[in-house]
Write a structure and sequence with these properties.
The chain is an all-alpha fold and about 375 residues long. The chain contains 15 helices and no strands. It starts with about 30 loop residues before the first helix and ends in an 11-residue tail after the last helix.
C-alpha cells in the first residue's frame, strides 16, 4: 500500500503534496473494485457457511474492501482525513494474510490473545509513528509488507505439502493462491518504494498513476487469492499432534500409508489432509511428505489423488454411475479438480476413459 514521507498523510501514508490538478485515472474505479470484493466476500461466506471458515482470509477480503473505499475517497474526492486511517489499516493486511496461511500450515500453540497481540503489532507501530514520527511510516510499511511476504514464502518452502491442514483436493490451488498473495505483498512494497523515489526525484509527478493502478491491482489480487486459498480450510477439530522421535525408511513409510489407503480407502475422505493422514498412519507428517517426495517424485496431494483417480477409473469402467457420482465417491468435491487430476494421471478425460474401456455408462448422458 503506497506510502511516501510527508507531513500530511494520504492513502496508506502517501505524501499529500499531490496537487489538485492530479486526478485519479478512474475516479469511480475504487468503488467498483470495493463492490466486486464485497460480492466476493459474500460468495466465500456462503460457500463456507457449512464448514469452519478461515476467518483471517475473510477479514483480509473485508479489509481490501475498506482500503479500496478509502482510496476512492482520498484520491477521487480529496478527503484527506482518511490519510490518518489508511496507513494503520494497510499495516493489518500482511498479518492477516500470514494468519490465514498459518491456519492451513499448522495449528498455533499460542493463545488467542497472544495471536491477536502479535498480529496487531504492525498496526500499533504505524499508529505510534503517525503520532510521533510520520516520516518513518513509509519505510515501516515497506518492511512490514516485505517481512510478512518472506515469512509466508518460508512457510511454503515444502510446496503444496506445506498445507498439511488443508484437504488434499484443494492444496495445489491454495498453494498457488498463497504464492500470488505473497507476490502481491512484495509488489505493494515495491510500489511504495517507487512512489517514495518519485517524490524525491520528480516531486510526485507519477505518483497518482502508480497509486490508482497499483493499489487496486494489489487489493484485487489479495482478495482473489484469499478467496481461493480459503477454499482449502482446515477442519475445526484438527489438533496438533506430537511427533515421534523415531524415523523409518522411506519404503517402510510408503508401505504403511499404501496399506491404509488400500484397506481403509482413506482417499475417499474429501477432507483428508496431511495432518489427518499422519495421525491415521501414526507417522509424522513431515516424514510422510519427505518419503513420498523422495521415493515417488511427487507431493502427497498428487499421491492421494492417484489413488482417487485409480478408483475412479475402476468405477467408470465397471459401473453405471455417472461421472459426477464417481467424482464425489472417490473424494473429489469439484469437477475442475477432478478433470485436471484425471487428465494428469490418464492423459484423457473421464468420459473418454469410460468410452475407451467400454464402460457400461459410456454414453455422454452418463456424465
Amino acid at each position: 500500500m503506497e506510502v511516501a514521507p510527508s507531513e500530511d498523510l494520504g492513502n496508506d501514508g502517501i505524501y499529500s503534496s499531490l496537487r489538485s490538478h492530479q486526478a485519479m485515472l478512474f475516479i469511480p474505479l475504487p468503488f467498483v473494485v470495493a463492490l466486486l470484493l464485497l460480492v466476493l466476500f459474500v460468495t466465500v461466506l456462503k460457500r463456507d457457511e457449512e464448514a469452519a471458515p478461515n476467518r483471517p482470509f475473510l477479514a483480509l477480503i473485508l479489509l481490501s474492501v475498506l482500503l479500496s473505499i478509502l482510496s476512492g475517497l482520498r484520491w477521487g474526492y480529496g478527503v484527506k482525513a482518511v490519510g490518518m486511517i489508511a496507513p494503520v489499516i494497510a499495516a493489518m493486511v500482511p498479518p492477516l494474510a500470514y494468519a490465514g496461511v498459518s491456519r492451513l500450515v499448522r495449528t498455533s500453540r499460542r493463545s488467542l490473545s497472544q495471536r491477536i497481540a502479535l498480529h496487531a503489532a504492525p498496526a500499533v507501530v504505524i499508529l505510534l509513528l503517525i503520532t510521533f514520527r510520520r516520516e518513518a511510516i513509509d519505510i515501516a510499511l515497506v518492511l512490514v509488507f516485505i517481512g510478512y511476504a518472506l515469512a509466508i514464502l518460508l512457510l511454503m518452502r515444502p510446496g503444496a505439502d506445506a498445507l498439511r491442514l488443508a484437504p488434499f483436493e484443494g492444496a495445489v490451488p491454495a498453494y498457488r493462491a498463497i504464492i500470488f498473495a505473497a507476490v502481491a505483498l512484495c509488489l505493494s512494497a515495491a510500489v511504495d518504494i517507487f512512489v517514495f523515489l518519485d517524490f524525491t526525484w520528480a516531486h510526485g509527478e507519477h505518483a497518482v498513476t502508480l497509486i490508482s493502478v497499483s493499489n487496486l491491482a494489489v487489493l484485487v489480487i489479495l482478495g482473489i487469492a484469499a478467496a481461493a486459498a480459503s477454499r482449502s480450510r482446515a477442519p475445526a477439530e484438527t489438533v496438533e499432534m506430537g511427533l515421534k522421535s523415531e524415523t523409518t525408511e522411506d519404503k517402510e513409510t510408503i508401505a504403511t500409508v499404501d496399506a491404509l489407503m488400500e484397506a481403509r480407502k482413506l482417499y475417499r475422505d474429501a477432507n483428508l489432509n496431511l495432518d489427518r493422514l499422519a495421525r491415521k498412519a501414526g507417522i509424522p507428517a513431515r516424514q510422510i511428505s519427505a518419503a513420498i517426495n523422495r521415493a515417488m517424485d511427487k507431493n502427497v496431494s498428487q499421491y492421494v489423488n492417484d489413488y482417487r483417480i485409480g478408483d475412479a477409473c475402476r468405477l467408470l469402467a465397471g459401473t453405471e454411475k455417472s461421472v459426477t457420482e464417481v467424482m464425489f465417491e472417490v473424494g473429489f468435491q469439484t469437477k475442475s479438480n477432478f478433470n485436471r487430476e484425471f487428465r494428469r494421471v490418464t492423459d484423457m478425460t473421464p468420459l473418454a476413459w469410460r468410452q475407451r474401456k467400454g464402460g457400461v455408462g459410456g454414453s455422454p448422458a452418463s456424465s
